[in-house]
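DM from R.C. (forwarded with permission)

"hey, sorry to bug you on a friday — could you get me a structure for this? deadline for the figure draft is monday and I only need the backbone to look sensible"
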Amino acid sequence: MPEPMLEILLLLAAACTAGALNAVAGGGSFLTLPALVFSGVPPVMANATGTVALFPGYIASAWGFREDLAPPPGLTLRAVMGLSLVGGALGALLLLATPDATFRRVVPWLLLAATALFALGACRTLGVDSENAPQRGQFLPDSPPHSGTMGQEDGKKWAAAAHSQPTAPKSDWLLGPRLRPAARPDATAHAVTPAARLRAQAGVLAVAAYGGYFNGGLGILLLALFGLLGQTRLHAANGLKNLVSALLTAIAVLIYAAGGLVAWPQALAMMLAATAGGYGGARLARRIPAPWLRAGIVATGLVMAGLFFWRG
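My reply, with the result:
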């Protein structure tokens, strides 16, 4: 088989698998970036092109969680959106200014860091403390455990923890939260100091800038950040993660394109493959145990980082 055909098949397979991984657990960038680099695309262009290829998946995920959007304490939805756009633009501009030789040296370390973040994220306890409401950095399930797997006392504990959390208002897609009188963020604003609000804004800005520069491990970083900021509803954190990812990637893609960093033939083909993989991955997820998926993604990240170190 001719070598160009092998490269095309490699890119399509990587994009399809990456779309499936992002649909069920994340970590798609661990495949798209190495596949593009190994097929001869310069490292900086490969990073930008891989991000463009996975962009439709971020939009679809954000739309799917649109009913669950709720900002963490101390931030409004509009503030999070604005910080996401600014941070994504800063990260993309930094990538434009990074020489290929420098990025090639940085990539294996970024892959290792992203893999470590993913592994740590996989070990997070997503649930309710056995005696108390969720602590800062933990997530409260949005629905109780199956009735057949918990006793009456466990059900009471879950209900008490759930009722202890403030009710988040439903959110419009772009117009911000629809505020009810009893659920206005102003009612709890006194609990968030100006210094805490500034730290929250700086955190979102920094993670968005990281995402605009290098996409690997972005979802885990965002979930960890929102948990630390006090968001205890898992669906709300996931919805906000997908919205931030879509926004920062959108502005980054525009900057990549303006700077000539996108290999469009590869990007468009990989977009289609990633979209198909995302659809299939969402259906396949029900049949594969989550720990197996996470272990496979961590192993992939370590192998890819090792290959980049080996290639120098």
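R.C.: lifesaver. The chain has one domain: 3-179+186-311.
me: no worries. Residues 91 and 213 are 4 Å apart (CA to CA).
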